[in-house]
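At this stage, I wrote out one protein's amino acid sequence and its backbone structure tokens, and that material follows here:
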Amino acid sequence: MNTNAVYPPPSAPPADMFGNVPGYEGIGGGGYLPPPVPLEPIIPPQPGPSPDEWTIPSITEDEAHEAFKSFASGHCCWSSAPAKDGVITNMQHFNTYRYRLETFTESRSTEWAQKPHEGETADFYTQPAPRPWEIAAPPPSHFTNHMENIRVPFTSSIKECYNCRALGTLPCDTCRGDGKKPCWVCNGAGTRGEENCSHCNGTGTDRCDKCSGRGTKDCDICKGKRQLLAYINLKVEWKNNTEDHVVHQESGLDPNDLQSVHGKELFKNNNYLLYPLVGFPNPSISEASDRMIRDHQTKYAQSSRILQQRQTVELIPISKVTYKWKGDSHIFYVYGNERYVSADYPATCCCVIM
């Protein structure tokens, strides 16, 4: 049996595997590192938007009818009769504002890491390691989520693999280092009935197919390289933090339905840091802008660097349509530029597979 079996591998790297690097004391806490103080100048407040018009043309009955028929046809089990034969009796329009704030941030955290040594140069202490926020990491396009892992320069050292004790191999889990396993034909008996098993020639064993009879496998940690490269890993995460405020409207449509649609864009601006909208005609939007901008700047500036903010105001069309079908009144909603439909459809059924 392979003598490696006498020494079970440890479950984690030894505590003394990693060195001490100035500027990285207390590494491994798992939290994000506070960003440096921003140097960009603060911009003055911007005036509120002044679009040419604050309304969206209402859809016609024909357009509402077509949207309803398209909605019904997308459900294979539904009868098309309500959408085709229903008669529209009333339409109400409830255009509503949606304010959206996006705060694009960059966060950094560090941890000790390891990988199989594949010839990389050990540069530990050859020069002082740059601090986490000094390492160049070009961001993606603004408001795009992305993550990168960067090996911190001058923190790499070569260590013997603690898992296999630098042998590169471990006993096979399946055969426990024997290179053999019980014959699957005779279940290890060596015989079938009164005769020797023809598959294993009476030995009761078969070659272990997991390790091809070697009794060993490559170490899971060093992948057979026997050595590890230990280094500090810098995780850089860019994230677009988005929050919406929809002005309350009395249509009865679930506000969550509006998350998937677009409206008429009335106003958009972005800058390193934003000021709340000033003088917006709807006070709810101005109040939401003031509250959300302050909340975002307080919340995200503690653990990340704010790279850009963007605020948008949309006017989303909502039409509440009442129609009659088989003598009963029903309601559906058409909303958003996409003309999505929400309805409690009166003629659903189940498909039966014969």
Summary: The two ends are 60 Å apart (CA to CA). The longest strand covers residues 96-116.
